[in-house]
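Minutes, structural biology subgroup

Action item carried over from last meeting: produce the structure token record for Sugar ABC transporter (Thalassospira lohafexi). EB confirmed the sequence was re-checked against the source entry. Recorded below for completeness.
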Amino acid sequence: MNGVELRNVTKAYAGLTVMENINLEITDGDFVVLLGPSGCGKSTLLNMIAGLEPTTGGEIHIGGRNVTELEPDERDIAMVFQSYALYPTMSVRKNIGFGLKMGGMRKDEIEKRVADVGELLQITPLLDRKPSQLSGGQQQRVAIGRALVREPSVFLFDEPLSNLDAKLRADMRVELKRLHERLGRTIVYVTHDQIEAMTLATKVVVLEKGRIQQADTPENVYRRPANHFVASFVGAPTMNFISGKMLQDGSDIVFDSGAGQLPLVDVPTEARNLIGQPITLGARPEHLLFDDAGIASRVLLAEPTGPDQYVRLAVAGSEITARCGPEQVFRSGSDTRILIDGARMSLFDPQSGQALLQA
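Output recorded by EB:
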């Protein structure tokens, strides 16, 4: 088994603890993405797994072995960095096979592995070129090939696509997804890009201030965030938040913000148990429904994006963003009506920020 397990991992610099009691189990074949804002600790965590930074406490296990005190080359891992770091005077072929050569592998075995990797990454025609003759996307493929050729237990990626333009990033995401599906190897991948996280991962680990906020499938992280931070960080545009309380209005349930009452539909049973309590309601733009039975709202701005449009609204003392199709026409200053899909809303404790509805 080629999984990774972190047991109470702690990291401190000059006595200042920046990560404390990190526990995480990455199963064999998982594609785990460490996601979070700058300074949250995701690269530090990856470097500790790689052995590039020592832990202050706790243990790291790879493939069932305790590797906490082992050097990077003893951990059976391969790492791909943000910088391609290719040898400019060597051909692609020699760049990919250099590590194997330094390890004393036979020349014929090196040639076979390089050829296999070249075919897998579709760079066979580039094997005799120099890095200066390659595009950014091609250079990143070579960097990935240099890791693949070693056939390690675990691959570590530290923001490998951040130097590419938007089109190349999208293309490389597809290639990485296909690569993982074909190889089935364990991958730990660091990024601050939500699209990369949501499209690549089998599990997303959201970090903030050196702590794991949620570790779950991309779907659950998006649909059922564990707390206010995860809800606000994941998703673009961000989730809408309104403070207030749910009230019973005859057979209906509304959310009272203090400046107006927003109708809720399809409210689940567990949410009904919170009626009357102070809460923070979270609704993603697609959870706001344009309906004549809704509350009166003023259109502030409409932003068409092609397949969708985002409509900024003033409603019940708040400004919120709704998402809808391009066929609807909105003009700034006009009136419309909205209600909230209670089946998909999130509810948070206003003090702790923890989710009150379970996934």
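Discussion: Residues 115 and 231 are 45 Å apart (CA to CA).
Next step: EB to file the record with the rest of the batch.
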